[in-house]
Amino acid sequence: MNNTQTERDQKLKELLGEYWFVTFERTIAFLEKEYKSTISEDALLSKSMETAKQIQQLELSDMVLVEMYQKLDDYLNENKKKKRIPAHLLSMLIGLHLDHFEGIEANLDFLLKTDISDETLSQCIKLLFHVIVLHYSNEDELEANFMELCEDMPSDFQLAPVLWHLYNEDVNYETLLTLASLADAKKPLKHAILGFKGFIYYEVDQPLEALYTYIVILHLIREHKKGAEHLGITYFLIAQCFYEIKNVPMTIEYCSKGIQEAEKREQPENLCMMYYLRAEALLEQEEKEKAKADLDSLLRIDPENEDGKKLLNEI
Questions:
Q1: Rounded to whole angstroms, how far apart are CA atoms 23 and 10?
Q2: How far apart are CA 228 and CA 243, in angstroms?
Q3: How confident is the model over 202-220, as pLDDT tens digits?
Q4: What is the mean pLDDT of the chain?
Q5: Contact of 50 with 133, CB cutoff 8 Å
Q6: What percent of the chain is modeled with pLDDT above 90?
Q7: Rounded CA gap, 132 and 242, in Å?
């Protein structure tokens, strides 16, 4: 499999989470139960079924998948009424894997109007429809379409990856904050949603709101004993907010807590950020030797860290 295909699959898997796999599994199971003879008697459907079963093993080239997808599209245009449901479902699976949003939209439009006896599969189809609509939404449509996703999504569906996807699509920060608040209302006190919300607050120069959000996350980690692996980075994010509001002593305190946690959990990538921020804060207090020690520690972990080398040279 080429890198482009791997990256494409990864994006969709992140958006759909477990429902990426559930969609494939339930579709195949439904077809084998309800349309086994129909598929076995039709050469194209039989070949498409074989192809769809291999998709999850990631062994098929784009060329094979695109060719099969096109054949199914032509097949559906011939209006084979009795075989439209299995053809649309198979086309949906291949189109999903190809990240062919516009193509599977037509499949979903048809399938949403069809009585699918498998309730979980129907739920997957609805979810796919909402994700695709959201992906293609204009800025002024996002809030309404996101609310529809929130209303129809399964209870265990994760909204944070959708928010990060929209952030990467350059949706404006005001809209992202609105969507994050909607997600928080739908799934209150979820670390990942709060983390996204805090990040956006910080990006729009609202460090107090970001600080409050990160402190809520810290409380949840301590209270529920879940997400302890994120404790170090949470300390760092709190320290970062304190630094933005010019509270240097609290910056140093939370950096120190974060460093202790990151060392305990062997998280060197977090340590570099924390040593650098604490060094900056120490310099604010004219504690040059302590700052130098932190930068030395940073450069032992990452000898090529340009920011660390530059600050050390300034000292």
A1: 15
A2: 24
A3: 999 999 999 999 999 999 9
A4: 91
A5: no
A6: 75
A7: 39
Q: Which of 112, 156, 120, 191 is nearest to 17 (CA)?
A: 156
What are the pLDDT digits (tens) for 90-145?
999 998 888 777 788 889 999 999 989 999 999 999 999 999 899 889 999 999 99
Q: What is the pLDDT of residue 274?
A: 96
Question: Given the structure tokens 């760092």, which residue do they identify?
Answer: 236
- Residues 71, 30 contacting (CB under 8 angstroms): no
- Spatial contact of 27 and 121, defined as CB atoms under 8 Å apart: yes
Closest to 29 in 3D by CA, of 127, 118, 123: 118
Q: For the ranges 5-19, 40-54, 154-168, which has the lowest average pLDDT? A: 5-19
Say which residue, 49 or 59, is predicted with more confidence. Answer: 49
